[in-house]
């Protein structure tokens, strides 16, 4: 994912410095060229050899280190970096960067960087909320630095409050958002539905399906990584909420319909990946309830057809993509839905194919438009998501 990209990690004197070894390792596994600069104080918490072992690059501490491959190290690293992450960022280093001071290797290099700079403050909660520290953070934002809000909880000093550095996965997500993919969706607004809906029968039981929401969540994340402003209307799922995406939680098909009806006209691309429960219990009198084999049956009505409504009420210039789950006659049934619902593309799943469908990390799909059918081989749902976006962009240009 990050092959050919260079990330510069700046680590300062904080107990949270140990987490950065995992961040470096995660980035290297993604194919990234990782360089690390430690402040002198940071070396009291983690050693340079740790990062050198993980990254295969010399870990810099001293501005005047002569045993280095570049002639002017801080300038060479600054030019090489695609993004800089300073984490954990101490109050001292934040103050230096906010005021343009350059008295060590880290602050000198950051001052020479033209790429995006991301800062993750980590310190005692009283220090973090100090008016001076907050003023310096606002100055960094004014100068184009992106600030990662610290987590709240018990700190190393046993105080409770915000000031904790977020989990390593969160730090990596900030880097991915910046450099993982070209921003070919920049300026676009995308709305995605995902997950299963539930239709209550009574206070205990409900009708639903096996959807986990994985495919829709991967699509929302992929659109975000490619620069779009993304809204995710999420049915019931156990998945963690994706960062940098506006998530709206719903439960029933009616809830999802109302959420989409209110927002879909504002968006340029609509992708309905949710598996909506097709039926809901209808209200009937006790006399009309029938018994079969001694059991009371439940009268059912069809739920609202969200995709059909959007196809009928779409505005000019919008692109609508739906999903079709089929167990037989996949292509024929999907093409019927494409025309009937007045949409631009439908992504068909054959649930009988190994590795596709609900709950898996992989999928096998066929992308169907009015002009062509493109069958994808078995691949991760992340890869499927980007293939879907590629096809949408291609069709929009035709």
What can you see in these coordinates?
The chain is α/β, with parallel strands linked by helices and 398 residues long. The protein has 13 helices and 23 strands. It folds into two domains: 6-179, Flavin prenyltransferase-like (Rossmann fold), CATH 3.40.50.1950; 189-397, CoaB-like (Rossmann fold), CATH 3.40.50.10300. The chain has helices at 19-29, 48-55, 73-80, 91-98, 105-112, 125-128, 131-142, 168-179, 214-225, 253-263, 306-313, 330-340, 381-397; strands spanning 6-11, 33-38, 83-89, 116-121, 146-147, 151-154, 160-164, 189-194, 199-200, 206-207, 229-234, 246-249, 269-272, 279-281, 291-292, 295-296, 300-302, 319-326, 345-350, 362-363, 365-369, 373-375, 379-380. The strands form seven sheets. An eight-stranded mixed β-sheet has the order 12-11-8-13-18-19-21-22, with helices on both faces. A five-stranded parallel β-sheet has the order 2-1-3-4-5, with helices on both faces.
Please give a quick description of this structure.
By secondary structure, this protein is α/β, with parallel strands linked by helices. The chain contains 13 helices and 23 strands. A hairpin with a 2-residue loop joins strand 15 (291-292) and strand 16 (295-296).
């Amino acid at each position: 994912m990050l092959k050919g990209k260079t990330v510069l990690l700046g680590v300062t004197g904080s107990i949270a410095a140990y987490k950065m070894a995992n961040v470096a390792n995660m980035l290297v596994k993604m194919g990234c060229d990782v360089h690390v600069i430690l402040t002198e104080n940071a070396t009291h918490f983690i050693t340079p050899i740790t990062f050198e072992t993980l990254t295969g690059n010399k870990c810099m501490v001293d501005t005047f280190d002569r045993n280095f491959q570049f002639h002017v190290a801080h300038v060479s690293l600054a030019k090489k970096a695609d993004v800089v992450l300073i984490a954990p960022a101490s109050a001292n280093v934040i103050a230096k960067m906010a005021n343009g001071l350059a008295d060590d290797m880290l602050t000198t290099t950051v001052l020479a960087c033209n790429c995006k700079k991301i800062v993750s403050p980590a310190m005692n909660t009283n220090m973090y909320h100090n008016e001076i520290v907050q003023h310096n953070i606002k100055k960094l934002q004014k100068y184009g630095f992106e600030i990662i809000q610290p987590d709240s909880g018990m700190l190393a000093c046993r105080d409770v409050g915000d000031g904790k550095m977020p989990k390593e996965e969160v730090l990596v997500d900030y880097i991915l958002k910046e450099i993982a993919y070209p921003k070919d969706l920049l300026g676009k607004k995308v709305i995605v539905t995902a997950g299963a809906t539930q239709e209550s029968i009574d206070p205990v039981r409900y009708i639903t399906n096996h959807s986990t929401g994985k495919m829709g969540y991967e699509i929302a994340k992929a659109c975000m990584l490619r620069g779009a402003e993304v809204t995710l209307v999420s049915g019931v799922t156990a998945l963690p909420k994706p960062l940098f995406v506006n998530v709206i939680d719903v439960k029933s098909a009616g809830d999802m319909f109302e959420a989409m009806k209110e927002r879909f006209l504002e968006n340029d691309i609509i992708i309905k990946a949710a598996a909506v429960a097709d039926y809901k219990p209808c209200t009937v009198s006790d006399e009309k309830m029938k018994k079969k084999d001694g059991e009371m049956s439940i009268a059912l009505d069809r739920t609202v057809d969200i995709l059909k409504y959007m196809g009928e009420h779409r505005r000019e210039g919008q692109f609508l993509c739906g999903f079709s789950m089929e167990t037989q006659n996949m292509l024929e049934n999907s093409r019927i839905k494409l025309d009937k619902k007045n949409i631009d593309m439908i992504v068909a799943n054959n649930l009988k194919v190994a590795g596709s469908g609900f709950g898996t990390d992989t999928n096998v799909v066929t992308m169907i438009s009015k002009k062509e059918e493109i069958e994808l081989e078995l691949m991760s749902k992340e890869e499927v998501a980007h293939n879907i976006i590629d096809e949408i962009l291609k069709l929009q240009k035709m």
